[in-house]
Amino acid sequence: MTVKLLDIAKKVVACEVDPRMVAELTKRIQGTPQYSKLSIRVGDILKSEMPYFDVCVANVPYQISSPLVFKLLLHRPFFRCAVLMFQLEFAQRLVAKPGDPLYCRLSVNTQLLSKVEHVMKVGKNNFKPPPKVESAVVRIEPYNPPPPINFQEWDGLLRICFVRKNKTLGASFRSKAVLELLSKNYKTYCALNNMMDESDEESIKDKVIKLLTDSDFVEKRSRTLDIDDFLKLLKLFNDNNIHFS
């Protein structure tokens, strides 16, 4: 794939963790016009600083799919697009809509930060040797500028909502672990903002359930909510000093 990219691109920065692949690529293009257009970075892309780039093209190792997607989406400066091949089910999660069986936190986060679309399915018989799973190519275009939200707060909310996406929000937010977290965050918020804190877990629980009930969210389930619903939910909590990071 890198050799084909060199035929059409002005410059290619290749990131590869396997030195044997680097040696093979170097051998193929050494002494050709493409050699001067290639820069190779050897190492784990998740642990390395990404170079400036306009377009990312990759056949992604399936075990790093999720962290790589978010590293790309949080990369600055913004790039134009990424065309990536993933395991089919992972690709389907990226583009899943509310109500789909594969709709999850990954779906919501990716679609909040980018336009993502399925390009094509790639059968396992296109590989030698054939893997055990099917693959798919997706195109990701990050939104520039990104939505004006605190991503840590946003992701903290989604983690709670999607632990059990089929449960009602009321049930999810009655969890002891969730109430402990929200109570701790509330105490921290009060301390940082010189506010009197007379709360305990029970009062935080009452406050949270009242907010959910009054806004008609208490019986709703995360698997059916869209991005606008989650944005409304986050604003509702934050406006009432309930925080998730």
In short, what is this structure?
Keywords: Methyltransferase, RNA-binding, rRNA processing, S-adenosyl-L-methionine, Transferase. By secondary structure, this protein is α/β, with parallel strands linked by helices.
CATH-derived architecture of the largest domain? Orthogonal Bundle
Q: Mean pLDDT, rounded to whole units?
A: 94
The arrangement of helices and strands along the chain is HEHEEHEHHEEHHHHH
What is the CATH T-level topology of the largest domain? Helicase, Ruva Protein, domain 3
Give the structural class. Answer: alpha/beta
* Count of helix runs: 10
Per-chain topology:
Elements: H1 2-8, E1 12-16, H2 19-29, E2 38-42, E3 55-59, H3 65-73, E4 81-87, H4 88-95, H5 105-113, E5 114-122, E6 135-142, H6 151-162, H7 169-173, H8 176-192, H9 201-214, H10 227-239
Parallel strand pairs: 1-2, 3-4
Antiparallel strand pairs: 4-6, 5-6
Helix pairs in contact: 8-9
Describe the structure.
Belongs to the class I-like SAM-binding methyltransferase superfamily. rRNA adenine N(6)-methyltransferase family. It comes from Sphaeroforma arctica JP610. One of its GO terms (cellular component) is nucleolus. Keywords: Methyltransferase, RNA-binding, rRNA processing, S-adenosyl-L-methionine, Transferase. This protein folds into 3 domains: 1-43, no CATH class; 59-145, Vaccinia Virus protein VP39 (Rossmann fold, 3-Layer(aba) Sandwich), CATH 3.40.50.150; 151-239, Helicase, Ruva Protein, domain 3, CATH 1.10.8.480. It contains 10 helices and 6 strands. It has helices at residues 2-8, 19-29, 65-73, 88-95, 105-113, 151-162, 169-173, 176-192, 201-214, 227-239, and strands at residues 12-16, 38-42, 55-59, 81-87, 114-122, 135-142. Strand 3 (55-59), helix 3 and strand 4 form a beta-alpha-beta unit.
